[in-house]
């Protein structure tokens, strides 16, 4: 038989290590999913490690093997939430055939997703120690991903002659402006969601006219 082969014992070790890593990731994901529901229901302050352990049918020792505290778990939950929101935005964007509708569905998908997750973001802003630093870190991380997505959408608009080609040299800046403009509407979620769609449509109309 040709080709290099690892000795059987080394092969076995690699297989076992890979299996262990996969199992560890599965357990961590199970902890995060269980905690996500508990935090939504009771908030961070009232939730205990024991509550999370019971929800997933494990002992507290399992939780402490993977996470140092419930705050540590909460950080992972927030990161999971961010990824879910962004993935839903990308999926909605990919289904559209024009730059205008891509922008529209991305914004509305984000607003809807955030509305469904308000409890966790209220926890982040009111209960978590040093939450300002965490919120800022989350905001920066998410904003950059948004900006990159809008750069792609604006480039799509230029390529398909929806937007003026003169904007080509300023796409990152314009993407930043778009993200910043619509972010103001997101704060309405924490107070009232009245006429949000109408506000988004109006801002979108003004934006698209400026890009054409």
Structure description:
This protein has 212 residues and is mainly alpha-helical. It is elongated, with a radius of gyration of 22 Å. Helices cover 79% and strands 0% of the residues. It has two domains: 7-67, Homeodomain-like (Arc Repressor Mutant, subunit A, Orthogonal Bundle), CATH 1.10.10.60; 71-211, Orthogonal Bundle (Tetracycline Repressor, domain 2), CATH 1.10.357.10. It contains nine helices and no strands. It starts with 7 loop residues before the first helix and ends with a helix. The longest helix is centred in the first third of the chain and has 39 residues, at 8-46.
Structural class, by secondary structure, is mainly alpha
Mass-distribution shape? elongated
Q: How many angstroms does the end-to-end distance come to?
A: 64 Å
Examine the coordinates and then state which fold CATH places here, giving the name of the CATH topology of the largest domain: Tetracycline Repressor, domain 2
Count of discrete structural domains: 2
Q: Beta-sheet strand percentage?
A: under 5%
Number of helices: 9
Radius of gyration: 22 Å
Number of strands: 0
The overall pLDDT average reads 80
CATH-level-4 superfamily name of the largest domain: Tetracycline Repressor, domain 2
Task: Report the top-level CATH class of the largest domain.
Answer: Mainly Alpha
Task: Show unreliable segments.
Answer: none
CATH architecture of the largest domain: Orthogonal Bundle
Q: What can be said about the biggest beta sheet?
A: none
Question: What is the share of helical residues?
Answer: over 70%
What is the element string, with H for helices and E for strands?
HHHHHHHHH
């Amino acid at each position: 038989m040709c080709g290099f082969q690892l000795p059987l014992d080394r092969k076995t070790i690699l297989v076992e290590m890979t299996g262990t890593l996969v199992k560890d990731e599965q357990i961590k994901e199970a902890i995060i999913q269980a905690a996500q529901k508990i935090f939504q229901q009771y908030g961070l302050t009232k939730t205990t490690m024991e509550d999370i352990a019971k929800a997933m049918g494990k002992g507290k020792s399992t939780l402490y093997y993977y996470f140092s505290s419930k705050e540590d778990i909460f950080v992972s939950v927030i990161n999971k939430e961010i990824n879910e929101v962004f993935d839903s935005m990308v999926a909605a964007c990919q289904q559209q055939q024009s730059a205008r509708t891509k922008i529209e569905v991305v914004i509305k998908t984000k607003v809807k997703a955030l509305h469904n997750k308000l409890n966790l973001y209220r926890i982040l802003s009111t209960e978590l120690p040093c939450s300002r630093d965490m919120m800022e870190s989350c905001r920066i991380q998410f904003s950059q991903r948004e900006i990159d997505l809008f750069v792609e959408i604006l480039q799509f608009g230029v390529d398909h002659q929806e937007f003026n080609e003169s904007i080509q040299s300023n796409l990152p800046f314009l993407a930043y402006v778009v993200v910043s403009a619509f972010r103001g509407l997101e704060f309405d979620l924490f107070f009232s969601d009245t006429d949000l769609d109408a506000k988004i449509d109006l801002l979108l109309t003004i934006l698209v006219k400026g890009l054409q």
